[in-house]
Write a structure and sequence with these properties.
The complex is a heterodimer of chains A (170) and B (310). Chain A has 170 residues and is α+β, with helices and mostly antiparallel strands. Chain A has six helices and five strands, in the order ααβαββαββαα. Helices cover 28% and strands 14% of the residues of chain A. In chain A, the strands form two sheets. Chain A has a three-stranded antiparallel β-sheet. In chain A, strands 1-4 form a two-stranded antiparallel sheet. Chain A is elongated. Chain B is an alpha+beta fold and 310 residues long. Chain B has three domains: 99 residues, Ubiquitin-like (UB roll) (Roll); 111 residues, Alpha-Beta Plaits, CATH 3.30.70; 70 residues. Chain B is 16% helix and 19% strand. Chain B contains six helices and 14 strands. In chain B, the strands form four sheets. Chain B has a five-stranded mixed β-sheet with strand order 2-1-5-3-4, with helices on both faces. A four-stranded antiparallel β-sheet of chain B has the order 13-12-11-14. In chain B, a hairpin with a 3-residue loop joins β6 and β7. In chain B, α2 crosses α3. The chains are: A alpha+beta (170), B alpha+beta (310). Chains A and B meet through α3 and β2 of A and loops of B.
Chain lengths: 170, 310
């Protein structure tokens, strides 16, 4: 080693300079992180998050509990129980059969989107919403109360942007 | 013993064998599909026209080809006959046409239908059908009828194969239902919605190739691919007692007769076995049923019995 290398000072200063560069950049300049949840990052248009069970224009549930999403699911996260539509429930369910219970275990789900692809009734879609955190495992089993969108126009969940990008990609 | 060649494969069959049965003795891809022919029902066949084949050489004595495609379930083999099944493009095209005709009035409600997953029309449409429909008119619809407490008749899905009529005729002492009306208006009926009360009436559910006749005790309970089909038997005074129990865990969701690989039942089971014995303790479960790995029923569960680790 030469004398300059043996005193180590240039190397120490060089390393210190790198550290300080990042320090000043974080304090005065642009940071790499965001202050979530106050600030939210833009998602990719094809982001796959929290599922939604859609209703049609008349507010009837699209899902007919055919079970194709459950059989397509590689993580076996979806379970359902079907029921027959009674007379007078035509405004609630589109088909003569509907899902009385529809559950997705969000801890099992790998958000691959195969359920969305398998669905013949355009009922299930993945959205850009993040699944909320929780302390209890049981709360990650999302039932119809967490999945079905509301009837009112302001409670509807728009999947058009994502669908446009997904179909364009194909 | 007549010698017959089907798609290049030669076999010696007994006198009076139909081309379809000769093809089934060879097996494989050349077996024509059959929606109405049912080997254990006398007189069945010749209605759906899905089993069309081309006879390229009539026989050794008369080698002229048959002028038109023939229904293989009704045509007997002759010595030296040569038949083209799936290898002939005209046969494939004709079957696609027949499938299109069968699907003209058939509703697209597979997600709702209980037969989905074990439906012969689904298989046929998958193999021979076309992706789009050219039919622009309103489809024929009927009201759903309950034939007795166990069977639901959904005429909209019916393809007029007559299998259930033959079943009712041949398994029960008196004829209880048939086909009324002609042509487009034809429908399976019990005439004034009389219930079928024979002890073997439940077999019409098994012979139905589509979801027109379904089990009311299993209606919308589950989908066939969520259930585990298990061979099981019980001591039954009325029938052979050999059946398939469709289980979910330790629960029996439904009971059907054993179907062979062409979807045909040879040991018909009685209504007591089918509808009333759904307790696990009533049956001696022999083991998992062998399901073709291409079938959706084989999805999502193991073919062999899993060993419980304690």
């Amino acid at each position: 080693m030469t004398f300059m290398e043996r005193i180590y000072l240039p190397a120490i200063l060089k390393g210190m300079w790198t550290t300080l560069k990042h320090f000043f950049r974080n304090v005065f300049g642009k940071t790499a992180t965001l202050r979530y949840p106050e600030v939210k990052r833009d998602f990719a248009p094809v982001y796959r998050g929290w599922h939604v069970l859609k209703r049609d224009e008349q507010g009837r549930e699209n899902c007919t509990a055919c079970g194709l999403c459950a059989v397509a699911c590689p993580a076996e996260a979806i379970t359902m129980t079907a029921a027959e539509r009674e007379k007078g429930e035509e405004n609630l369910y589109r088909e003569e059969k509907y899902a009385a219970v529809y559950e997705i275990n969000m801890l099992r789900c790998i958000f691959c989107g195969l359920c969305e692809e398998a669905c013949p009734k355009e009922a299930i879609f993945l959205t850009d919403r993040i699944v909320p955190t929780d302390y209890v495992r049981q709360n990650f089993v999302f039932g119809k109360d967490m999945l079905v969108e509301g009837v009112e126009p302001e409670k509807r969940i728009d999947v058009k942007v994502r669908q446009k990008h997904v179909t364009e990609k194909k | 013993m007549p010698k017959v060649t089907i798609d290049g494969q030669t076999i010696d069959v007994a006198e009076g064998t139909t081309i379809l049965n000769a093809a089934r003795q060879i097996g494989g891809e050349l077996v024509p599909p059959a929606m109405c022919y049912y080997s254990s029902l006398k007189g069945s066949g010749g209605k759906c026209r899905t089993c069309l084949v081309r006879v390229t050489k009539g026989s050794e004595k008369d080698p002229r080809p048959m002028p038109k495609l023939v229904a293989s379930c009704q045509t007997m083999v002759m010595d030296g006959m040569e038949v083209a099944s799936k290898s002939d493009p005209s046969v494939v095209e004709a079957r696609a046409g027949v499938t299109e005709f069968l699907l003209i009035n058939h509703p697209l409600d597979c997600p709702v239908c209980d037969q989905a997953g074990e439906c012969h029309l689904q298989d046929l449409a998958f193999e021979h059908g076309k992706a789009n429909t050219r039919y622009e008119f309103e489809r024929r619809t009927f009201e759903k009828i309950d034939i007795g407490p166990y069977i639901k008749l959904h005429m909209t899905r019916c393809i007029m194969c007559w299998r259930c009529v033959y079943t009712a005729q041949q398994l029960s002492p008196e004829r209880v239902h048939g086909i009324i009306g002609r042509g487009d208006h034809a429908e399976i009926s019990t005439y004034i919605e009389k219930s079928i009360e024979s002890e073997f009436s439940g077999n019409v559910i098994d012979v139905c190739p589509v979801g027109a006749l379904t089990d009311r005790t299993f209606r919308f309970k589950s989908r066939v691919w969520f259930l585990n089909p298990m061979d099981a038997h019980r001591n039954c005074p009325a029938c052979s007692g050999k059946a398939v129990v469709w289980m979910y865990g330790d629960e029996i969701y439904r009971v059907t007769a054993r179907k062979d690989k062409y979807g045909e039942v040879h040991d018909f089971i009685c209504n007591t076995c089918r509808f009333h014995t759904k307790d696990r303790n009533d049956w001696v479960v022999e083991g998992a049923r062998d399901i073709d790995r291409h079938s959706v029923i084989s999805q999502g569960h193991y073919a062999e019995n899993a060993v419980t680790v304690r």
